[in-house]
Amino acid sequence: MEQQKSASEWHELVQHTAEILRELAEAGDLGPGKVVVVGTSTSEVAGKHIGTGGALEIADSLLNGINEVKETFGFEVVFQCCEHLNRALVMERHLLERLGLTEVSAVPIPTAGGSMAAAAYRSLTEPCLAETIEAHAGMDIGETLIGMHLRRVAVPYRTKRRYIGEARVTTAITRPKLIGGQRAVYQMETSSNTSTCD
Q1: pLDDT digits (tens, 9 = 90+) for 31-59
Q2: Which backbone phi and psi does 47 adopt, to 5 degrees?
Q3: For 32-153, where are the alpha helices, taking DSSP H only?
Q4: Cis peptide leading into 153, omega within 30 of 0?
């Protein structure tokens, strides 16, 4: 499926990826300072079982769609490696240092890290790997399980488009924990309330 794609099919992968991520960015108010984690099985995009037919060409197309939206909204994107690299994250070094994340040492390749992580690594200015992160939102292309890298509390977000190629796409945004129980208020009140808990 990879090499036999027409120009329009490659373009469709870019468009569909950008469409889903753009909808997620709007729903999650994702802009500068926010981080989105992306997990991808290019095998699943190609209609194969995860881990059996990865393709850098597919990864490059998805990366084009992701970068298009990233540049528009200004958020950071990190890319989850496959389980062979313990789902470490490819990112720019400035982000790792800004967030004080724990660096791990590896260079992702298609057979150890995955095609998406490998493509992302070679596209970055100063790439590195972090062990984990707490991202504000995530896009999972092909059910790669990105939940371990999302902030609590993760909320599923169902985009209008649910597939890229043959891969099912799941997205999520996160929100702060609601604390305080029954008497807690989560939005500023417009009228004064005279009762207190003092």
Answers
A1: 999 999 999 999 999 999 988 888 999 99
A2: 85, 20
A3: 42-45, 56-73, 93-99, 115-123
A4: yes
